[in-house]
Specification:
By secondary structure, the chain is α+β, with helices and mostly antiparallel strands.
């Protein structure tokens, strides 16, 4: 059974879980340092949800809420489920909880993006009622 909770502190366990999970989400993501995780957790716009099966963190999701002139916006970011736990409802449970929290806080819609290569994830989002939008998504990379 999956247990969900809001992560509030960058514990050793949480840092280790993100170091294990993030490479499964993105091959280009830098290893997550405790300071960066703590900053993510302390941001008032973020809610980081974690999923546990027994004593192990097997998934995570970040819900981002931000106010703009047109209203309160919500986005789901960095959804990742450990490859060993996929197909057992972890991603759906995390997403449903994020939708519940977004509605509770006053958002009228929730956006997310998903790599087209993640077939199972895209099928899940469509099954849950997310609609594919026809839009241009742009990214500007800031060089450092």
């Amino acid at each position: 059974m999956v247990e969900l909770s809001v992560a509030r502190e960058a514990t050793d366990e949480l840092v280790a879980a993100f170091r294990r999970l993030l490479p499964q989400l993105s091959t280009s993501a830098a290893p997550l340092e405790r300071k960066a995780l703590a900053a993510t957790l302390s941001s008032p716009s973020n809610t980081v949800l974690v999923a546990r099966e027994g004593d192990e963190i097997v998934g995570a999701l970040t819900l981002v809420l931000y106010a703009v002139p047109t209203g309160l916006r919500a986005r789901i970011e960095d959804v990742v489920v450990d490859s060993r736990a996929r197909g057992r409802g972890v991603g759906e449970a995390l997403t449903r909880e994020a939708l519940r929290l977004a509605a509770e806080r006053g958002a009228r819609s929730v956006d997310l993006t998903s790599n087209p290569a993640r077939v199972a994830a895209n099928q899940l989002y469509q099954r849950m009622g997310f609609e594919l939008r026809e839009t241009n998504a742009y990214r500007f990379r800031i060089s450092r």
